[in-house]
Amino acid sequence: MSTSERYCVSRARDFWPVLVVIPFEDEAQAVSIANDSEYGLAAGIWTQSLSRAHRVAAAIQAGQIYVNDIWLVAWRLRSEV
Predict the structure, then answer these.
(1) What is the pLDDT of residues 25-68, one digit of tens each?
(2) Residue 39: is it exposed, middle or buried by C-beta count within 10 angstroms (0-12/13-18/19+)?
(3) CA dihedral defined by 3, 23, 51, 74, rounded to 10 degrees?
């Protein structure tokens, strides 16, 4: 499976919450993967390090960036119950 095929779900234009978990080797690769999208509507960062969260959030090109938070997903799930 090619890299582009492997990550196609993370680059699709979906209009509902989608969680995509992609392994990465280092911060630079994680940022590169996150920025490899035409849309960049929202991004999520999960980390124990506040300095890493600030550093990575500054490098990601997205309209909204959530840190250790899934409130949008939780809100959507509650509204469907």
Answers:
(1) 999 999 998 898 777 788 889 999 999 999 999 999 998 898 98
(2) exposed
(3) 100
3-class secondary-structure state, position 21: coil
Strands 64-67 and 42-45: parallel
Return the CATH number of 3-80, one of 2.60.40.1180, 3.40.309.10, 3.40.50.300, 3.40.250.10. 3.40.309.10
Q: Among positive and negative, which fits the CA dihedral 79, 21, 9, 13? A: positive
pTM for this model (two decimals): 0.67
